[in-house]
From TrEMBL:
It comes from the Bacteria. InterPro entries: ADH_Fe/GldA, ADH_Fe_C, Alcohol_dehydrogenase_Fe, MAR. Residues 166-346 form the Fe-containing alcohol dehydrogenase-like C-terminal domain. Coiled coil: none annotated. This is Maleylacetate reductase. Belongs to the iron-containing alcohol dehydrogenase family.
Length: 352
C-alpha cells in the first residue's frame, strides 16, 4: 500500500429522479430567501421551472451564462444580484452556468446550490476558470464550492445525444487522470474506477436509446464521482493539454477532452502500466487507450482536433505551451513526443 493523505470536501449531495422538486427545502436549509437563478441564454425555461419550485424564495433570473466564465458577464450578474438583494444563487445548467454561480459566490460569499445538467463536473470542485481580455486564469478556494448539489436525472433527459456523449467523455477524463494522480488515495481510486465503469456502460445505451432513464442515471452518477475525483486530486498531462488547446484556439471544452483523452492515456501508459491494465480490464479490452478511442468513434464523437476548429499551424505552439510551465506528470514531458501526441489528435489518428 502506498502512503497517502485523504481530505474530503464539505458538500451536500441530493441525487435521483425528480430531485429538483426538493429545491425549496434545500434553499431553506441554507436560509436562502431571495434566490437569483442562473441559466445560459437558451435555457430560460429551465430557470423558470426552478423559479416555480422556489415559490416566494425566487427573486429573479439571470439567463446570461456563457462558456469559460467571462468576467464581464459575472459583473452583469453581480449587478443583477445586488439590484434584487439576492441572498443566494441557484445555477441550473452545464459547466458554463455552474461556473458563473461559482464566480458570484467567490465575490459575494452568497451560498450557492448547483443543479448540473451535463457531466462536466465543475460543481464538485473548488476551482474557477475565468476569462478576461482573452486570457484564462484559474483559481481555487473553498468559497468557490457550491454548498449543495442537486443531481436530477430528469433534467438531463433533454441533453442531446451528441452533447451527452462528449460530456460523458469529459467526465471520464477526470476519473482516468485521478487513477494515476500524484496525490491519489484509495477512496478517490475507488470512486474513479466506479465512475469509469458507470460511464462506459451508460454512454452506448444513451446513444442507442436516448430516453433510457437508467442509462442517464448511471451517466450522471459517474459524472458526480468523476467531478469528485477532479475536485480531490491533482490532474496532469490530459487536463493541461485541454486547458492549453481550449484556451489558445477557443475549442469547445467537452469535445477537446473527448478527442485528447485516448492520446494522453497512451502517452502515460508506459509510466503507469498498472493503471493502464486496470482501465483496460474495466473496458474489457487489451489496450485502454485504443479501446477509448474506439468507444469515442462508435459514439460518433469527432475524432480530430481539426474537425473542431484547431488550425494545423497551431500544433507546434500547443506543444510549446504544454511544456512551458513544468508540472507533475507520471511520464516526463518530452517536447517531441508531446508534439507527436498533439499532431495525432489533430489528425484523428489512433493513439500511439
Ligand atoms: P455548457 O455548460 O456550455 O453545456 C454544454 C451544452 O449543453 C450547451 O450547448 C448547453 O446549452 C447544453 N445543455 C446543458 N444542459 C442542457 C439540458 N438540460 N438540455 C439540453 N441541453 C443542455 O458546457 P459544459 O461542457 O457542461 O461545461 C464546460 C464549461 O465548464 C467550461 O467553461 C469549462 O471550463 C467549465 N468547467 C469547469 C470545471 C471546474 O472545475 N472549474 C470543470 C469542468 C468544466
Amino acid at each position: 500500500m502506498y502512503p497517502f493523505v485523504y481530505k474530503s470536501l464539505p458538500l451536500r449531495i441530493v441525487f435521483g429522479e425528480g430531485t429538483s422538486a426538493r429545491l425549496a427545502e434545500e434553499a431553506d436549509l441554507l436560509a436562502i430567501r431571495r434566490a437569483l437563478v442562473l441559466t445560459t441564454p437558451g435555457h430560460e425555461q429551465l430557470g423558470r421551472a426552478m423559479a416555480g419550485r422556489l415559490g416566494d424564495r425566487f427573486a429573479g433570473l439571470f439567463a446570461g451564462a456563457v462558456m469559460h466564465t467571462p468576467v464581464g458577464v459575472t459583473e452583469d450578474a453581480l449587478k443583477r444580484a445586488a439590484d434584487l438583494k439576492a441572498d443566494g444563487v441557484i445555477a441550473v445548467g452545464g459547466g458554463s452556468t455552474v461556473g458563473l454561480g461559482k464566480a458570484i459566490a467567490l465575490r459575494t460569499g452568497l451560498p450557492q446550490i448547483a443543479i448540473p445538467t451535463t457531466y462536466a463536473g465543475s460543481e464538485m470542485t473548488p476551482i474557477l476558470g475565468e476569462t478576461q481580455n482573452g486570457v484564462k486564469t484559474t483559481r481555487s478556494s473553498p468559497e468557490i464550492m457550491p454548498r449543495t448539489v442537486i443531481y436530477d436525472v430528469d433534467l438531463t433527459l433533454s441533453l442531446p445525444v451528441r452533447v451527452a456523449t462528449v460530456s460523458g467523455m469529459n467526465a471520464l477524463a477526470h476519473s482516468v487522470e485521478a487513477l494515476d494522480a500524484k496525490d491519489r488515495n484509495p477512496v478517490v481510486s475507488l470512486m474513479a474506477a466506479d465512475a469509469i465503469r458507470a460511464i462506459v456502460s451508460a454512454l452506448p445505451d444513451i446513444a442507442r436509446t436516448p430516453d433510457d432513464v437508467n442509462a442517464r442515471s448511471l451517466a450522471l452518477y459517474g459524472a458526480w464521482l468523476s467531478g469528485l475525483c477532479l475536485g480531490s486530486v491533482g490532474m496532469a498531462l490530459h487536463h493541461k493539454l485541454c486547458h492549453v488547446l481550449g484556451g489558445t484556439f477557443n475549442l469547445p471544452h467537452a469535445e477537446t477532452h473527448a478527442i485528447v483523452l485516448p492520446h494522453a492515456m497512451a502517452y502515460n501508459s508506459v509510466a503507469v502500466p498498472d493503471v493502464e491494465k486496470q482501465i483496460a480490464e474495466i473496458l474489457g479490452a487489451h489496450g485502454a487507450a485504443s479501446a477509448l478511442h474506439d468507444l469515442a468513434h462508435r459514439l460518433g464523437i469527432p475524432a480530430s482536433l481539426r474537425e473542431i476548429g484547431m488550425p494545423e499551424a497551431g500544433i507546434d505552439r500547443a506543444a510549446e505551451l504544454a511544456i512551458a510551465n513544468p508540472y507533475w506528470n507520471p511520464r516526463p514531458l518530452e517536447r517531441g513526443d508531446i508534439r507527436e501526441l498533439i499532431a495525432r489528435a489533430w489528425a484523428g489518428e489512433q493513439p500511439l
